[in-house]
Specification:
The complex is a heterodimer of chains A (130) and B (121). Chain A is mainly alpha-helical. Chain A is built from 4 helices and no strands. By secondary structure, chain B is mainly alpha-helical. Classes of the chains: A mainly alpha (130), B mainly alpha (121).
């Protein structure tokens, strides 16, 4: 059985939600980098990295590029866990919010749940390997 | 930013989000009036962004102008993208995509209002 596309059915909805976060993260990082990069270069570069990962994950899911999708979605899960933990332990290191701060609390914790749903969906649509 | 227009758009977006959610649950294709309403809302959002930018150029501006303009531009793109992406699967998932788009839009307009109220004076 071959792999199923990741962009149809529930996948279509998932791509729409991913696109929302790609937009949110990109806009946030763009404004941060353009208007106040000097204040917190590390946090803002991290913010930009999260934006790039969301954008690539969205495109990969939308085009059923399974390998890239799995890598970026897994990276997001690690990102939200690491940045979430660090931002709770050492708030001073993250003076401004990113979508991953406090495990995505500013975004209803969707950034924490989304990669889990994404990985589940990638598994659901994966065919049996020969 | 015009409060009355913003509140009307938020209300319309929430109503359409609810409506498309129900249609999604019922697995019905999006009825033409609903599609037209989403299209009309997209046009009204564009109008709001233009008005906001005109007011900004007129001198009355929010403290965090960069973020506000970012939201204004992004708000214009949300519904056209949702409409385009929903087309391929009318029914459960297409309506779901429209619902996500309308919900996202309502949150963005609320944020725009908050940013606008933090005026630099």
């Amino acid at each position: 059985m071959a792999d199923e596309p990741t962009n149809t059915g529930f996948g279509r909805l998932l791509v729409a939600i991913y696109a929302t976060f790609a937009l949110a993260a990109t806009a946030r990082a763009g404004v941060q980098l353009v208007t106040r990069y000097d204040e917190a270069p590390l946090a803002y570069l991290l913010s930009a990295l999260s934006a790039v990962v969301y954008v690539v994950a969205t495109i990969a899911l939308a085009r059923s590029a399974r390998t890239v999708a799995t890598a970026t979605v897994a990276f997001e899960l690690i990102g939200v866990l690491v940045v979430g933990t660090l931002s709770v332990l050492d708030p001073a290191a993250f003076p401004d919010e990113t979508v991953w701060s406090d495990f995505g609390r500013g975004y209803l914790f969707i950034p924490l749940v989304l990669p889990l749903v994404g990985l589940y969906w990638l598994r659901r649509t994966a065919g049996l390997r020969p | 930013m015009l409060d009355a227009l913003a509140n009307t758009l938020i209300g319309a977006a929430l109503v359409l989000a609810a409506l498309t959610s129900v249609l999604s649950y019922l697995r019905r294709p999006t009825p033409r009036p609903v599609s037209l309403a989403v299209l009309g809302l997209a046009a009204a959002v564009l109008l709001q962004a233009v008005i906001a930018i005109v007011i900004v150029i007129g001198g009355d501006r929010p403290a965090d102008l960069g973020t506000f303009v970012g939201y204004a531009l992004a708000s214009v793109l949300v519904l056209p993208a949702a409409i385009a992406w929903s087309r391929a699967e009318p029914g459960r998932w297409g309506n779901g995509v429209l619902a996500v788009g309308c919900l996202t839009l309502s949150v963005m307009i609320v944020r725009m209002g908050q940013l606008w109220d933090m005026t630099s004076g």
